[in-house]
Write a structure and sequence with these properties.
By secondary structure, the protein is mainly alpha-helical. The chain contains 6 helices and 7 strands, in the order H-H-H-H-H-H-E-E-E-E-E-E-E.
Length: about 180
């Protein structure tokens, strides 16, 4: 498996750990978050120049941040549900909505980018772009409660600032 595939797998494991319903499981042990740490350390070690102490700190901070990321994603899910009359429940959004997948990739990648991780955030968002047609730069600034409905062709560039409770439809480009 090449580096890009390892990063994509790490992202999928992260979102599946946050939302185990994606795997057909109602609940997972919260200790599963800790299982992500050595995987991130390995990815960071292969691609980041900081010292091992910095790499370990980034990985620890990432695990500590995941509940906050999930809290933001839960707000996004709620806004998607309220903003899309076709949505039948939250699980449907988590399992089948490309807008949610793109937003989840952004939120995870954005945290890593803010930790000055250079490549992993871009691989995560480019994976989501190729999977969903939604291109969100990890450096964009996005508030809570984002709803991307019919997201094919949505581009949110690095210079974009989006406030809270915003709905974006297909074919919209924001940024420089």
């Amino acid at each position: 498996m090449n580096y890009r595939e390892k990063v994509e797998q790490f992202f999928k494991q992260t979102i599946d750990t946050l939302y185990p319903i994606r795997l057909g499981i109602q609940q997972k042990d919260s200790g599963d978050l800790l299982a992500l740490r050595p995987k991130l350390v390995e990815l960071l070690y292969q691609n980041v120049e900081p010292s091992l102490a910095s790499i370990d700190k980034i990985a620890i901070d990432f695990i500590d941040e995941l509940p906050k990321i999930k809290e933001l994603l839960n707000i996004d899910i709620s806004c998607i549900y309220k903003g899309d009359p076709a949505a039948t429940n939250y699980n449907e959004i988590v399992m089948a909505y490309p807008g949610f997948y793109g937003i989840a990739a952004y939120r995870i990648a954005n945290f890593l980018l803010r930790q000055e991780v250079p490549l992993i955030p871009r691989i995560i968002t480019e994976h989501a772009h190729s999977y969903t047609g939604i291109d969100i730069h990890p450096g964009a600034s996005i508030g809570k409660g984002l709803c991307i409905d019919h997201g094919t062709g949505v581009v949110i560039g690095q210079t974009t600032i989006i406030g809270n409770h915003v709905k974006i439809y297909q074919g919209v480009t924001l940024g420089a």
